[in-house]
Amino acid sequence: MNTLLEILSEKTAAAFEAAGYDASFGKVSVSNRPDLCEFQCNGAMAGAKQNKKAPLAIASEVAAKLSDCDAFSSVEAVPPGFLNLKIREDFLSSYLMDCDKCEKPGLEPLNKALKIIIDYGGPNVAKPLHVGHLRSAVIGEAVKRLCAYMGHEVIGDIHLGDWGLQMGLIIHELSLRQPELPYFDENFEGEYPQEPPFTLSQLEEIYPAASARSKEDEDYKAAAMNATYRLQHGDRGCRALWQHIMDLSKADLKKNYDHLNVSFELWNGESDVDPLIPALVERLEKTGLLYESEGAKVIDVKEESDTKEMPPCMILKSDGASLYATTDLATLVMRMDETDPDRVIYVVDKRQQMHFDQVFRVAKKTGIVPEKTELKFIGFGTMNGRDGKPYKTRDGGVMRLEYLLSDIKDVMQKKMEENKNSSGKEEDYDIDRTARMVSVAALKYADLSNQATKDYIFDMDRFTSFEGNTGPYILYTMVRIKSILKRWQDEKGGDLSSVRLSDARGSGEKDIQLRLAAFNTMIKGAYEELAPHRICAYIYELADSFNSFYHDTKILSEEDKDVQAGWIALLKYTLRIFEICIDILGFEAPDRM
What we know:
The protein is of the alpha/beta class. The protein has helices spanning 4-18, 43-51, 55-65, 89-100, 134-149, 165-177, 200-214, 218-232, 236-259, 270-273, 277-286, 324-338, 353-365, 401-423, 431-448, 460-463, 471-492, 507-517, 519-529, 532-552, 561-585; strands at residues 28-30, 39-41, 72-78, 82-87, 115-119, 153-157, 290-293, 296-299, 313-316, 343-349, 374-380, 383-384, 456-457. The radius of gyration is 29 Å and the shape is globular.
């Protein structure tokens, strides 16, 4: 169904046309002066020059045509030519009831769903997730859920780093520590052990130790590169060790992503497309675009419209080794062959912008990706500490993501326990589980409420507060609504299935209804821009509107049962919108806090 703004614009456009002016001047927007009106139309200002007439005169004529419109309770032409509009309470409640009947409030089913692949996550195996992985996971998951909510077929791919030098470093270091293992015996022909020769914690110690040594010992690095070569060329022992590394790492990654309510439909990595690279290079050579430059194989991607330097995209290094661009192009080959998506969206650090510009241009110029398929890059900024630098541990190291989650959970649980003690309530719910839910909301909302491209300061105290623009504040508002609805059912014997929205009886109630009516406009805009922060801004304003109404209204003690039922219906619908929004953002609300 049409958005409320579209409906109001149609009525105002008809009034402009009836007054003898172009209907295109009738666009209605939300008022930037809510103290004066709810909506406004500035079309008379735009039409003044074309019609050689004072804008106030045009606005007055249009206002006269709108005087008996069923949508507006007040239409006022004000200098220098604005139309100030207020919506009728019965028109607004009727619109909301129509929205409430939809499976997705105010949205019609799509005529055609798109196939969308979202590339996010990107961790290297054999290494723990750290805070640097947070934004890709959180933003990517929200974008995936947003696209899915709009009705599209969405596939999330983690794109593991599982095939590079880090594998050779681990294998070589292990060969020095445990040379007796059968994986290093060239004559071994039996079955390798099913259990790995290392634990996850040992694996996480091996890699940084090997990496540090390789930077100081050239012979050591050469041996690790040789192990990488043997792995990539089918050595049985190396492949078996690699599989052990993958099994342990994937299990740990899934556990940590599960804590964040992040999931992937595909767990593909660089290893999955390595066999495709020779055919990819041959394909690129046949286009005539691949040429040699200082021993390397490159493709020019510079365009006349470029205002910044755009170097050629390197496909193979001078020693014949592939690069990230090669792997990303091979991944696109696989995606086109297996899925043929309409869109491929990459959620990656914004500092990788040039890399993806190069990859996208090569993919289009060489026909790997047809023109009909959109390649989209969402570059995100960094999560910084209070010093303005990337978030670190107290001793200056990179913080593991699981430690950050644990720290936030502990802070939230402490605050909830203090609140419990001060209120004197006997809580019969699982405070540990609730604290986990609220801590995930705190972390994800803190990230998603910022525009993706911008850096932000991580402030534990502010983000875990139950006041202000925070995840806990949103959840506390939802829990408050749930509590009222439950009490109305339990104490008043109310039936939620029987209540219906009614016309607003005051400004607070109407303010909530106006915000609820804007849901479909907001969600469409958030999807078009792939901007989860717009959802955060919306639910924060909705929470503020509800809490103002709550403090001014004695809902459960209202004696007029019809008025009370209308308010309960409003709360029920408000909770529905909240639940949709936080599900898209990737967290959930407890029943009690």
